[in-house]
Design goal:
alpha+beta, about 20% helix, about 80 residues, three-stranded antiparallel sheet
Length: about 80
């Protein structure tokens, strides 16, 4: 599910995000939502605080612009 993007100067972007102690279904869903949001917005990377969740979770996709999969999505 695509989530709304939080933009500067929202205070959550200034906070130190919390560590993830355990990967559970809630974190797995967050990762899916982050990927959906990133791809919908035509991005190459996204972090949980950018969707209003103060956790240290980030994704990047290093597929090159010519479609070579490279390493693809890194979680």
């Amino acid at each position: 599910m695509k989530r709304p993007i939080i933009t500067f100067p929202n205070s959550i972007l200034h906070q130190r995000a919390r560590s993830v102690d355990k990967v559970n279904d809630e974190i797995r869903q967050l990762i899916v939502d982050l990927a959906d949001t990133m791809y919908t917005e035509d991005g190459v990377g996204i972090a949980a605080p950018q969707v209003g969740v103060s956790l240290r979770v980030a994704l990047i996709d290093i597929t090159d612009c010519e479609g070579d999969t490279g390493l693809g999505l890194i979680k």
